[in-house]
Amino acid sequence: MKWERDGLDSAALVAAAVGFLAVSSAKAQESSQAPEYRIKAAFLYNFTLYTEWPSTAFEKADSPIVLAIAGEDPFGKELDAAVRGKTVRGRPIELRRFGSASEVVSCHVLYLSASEAKQLPQVLKRFPDTKPLTVAETEDFCRAGGVIRFFVDQNKVRFEVNTDAAARSRLKISSKLLHLARIVRDED
């Protein structure tokens, strides 16, 4: 499968990921979470580059990729800056924020805040055909059926991917992205 990446190749992804992995010192994190969420915002954008949705996930060839935040938004302006003016395979990225998971409507990437992550099963029921790429930070998110979970390990932002959940959601995640992730399967 050929992955179109709007000019970003796998070497650039690896370089970007390595550059983004370093999280500021504990003292800096106490005063602000901005560096950590700047990194996570960049990862969210990169997830759109290396994920393929079924054609039925879009109404038209130029429909936007909708990235939704449900619940408390920890990104502030970082996510807006990360996706501003960007396109993926000819599709603009549209950012939407929802006060709770129960308000979420059609989207392609869904970040569930800690307060909303437990609503994952109910949210997925509202997407009978094509489910969004779900992302959160809560401990058992991937084991509960979420696709990607952020975590911090040795002061570095990392992520894990539940490949079984991605397959159930009819999402194809590039091996280049999976190479950077810790893989989790339903039977783990």
Portion of residues within helices: 25-40%
| SSE pattern, N- to C-terminal | HHHEEHEEEHEEEHEHE
**Rg (CA only):** 15 Å
User: What's the main sheet like?
Assistant: 8 strands, mixed
Annotated CATH architecture? 3-Layer(aba) Sandwich
> Which residue ranges are poorly predicted, with pLDDT under 50 across at least 5 consecutive positions?
1-8, 18-32
Report the strand count: 10
Query: What's the total helix number?
Result: 7
The CA-CA distance between the termini, in Å, is 28 Å
Compute the number of structural domains.
1
Strand order of the largest sheet: 3-4-2-5-6-7-8-10
CATH class, named Alpha Beta
Shape: globular
Describe the structure.
With 188 residues, the protein is α/β, with parallel strands linked by helices. The chain has a single domain (10-182), classed as Rossmann fold, CATH 3.40.50. Helix content is 30%, strand content 23%. The chain has seven helices and ten strands. The protein has helices at residues 10-21, 26-31, 34-49, 78-83, 120-125, 163-168, 175-178, and strands at 51-52, 65-70, 87-88, 91-98, 109-112, 133-136, 148-153, 156-162, 172-173, 182-184. The longest helix is centred in the N-terminal third of the chain and has 16 residues, at 34-49. The model is unreliable at 1-8 and 18-32 (pLDDT under 50).
Give me a quick take on this structure.
The chain has 188 residues and is an alpha/beta fold.
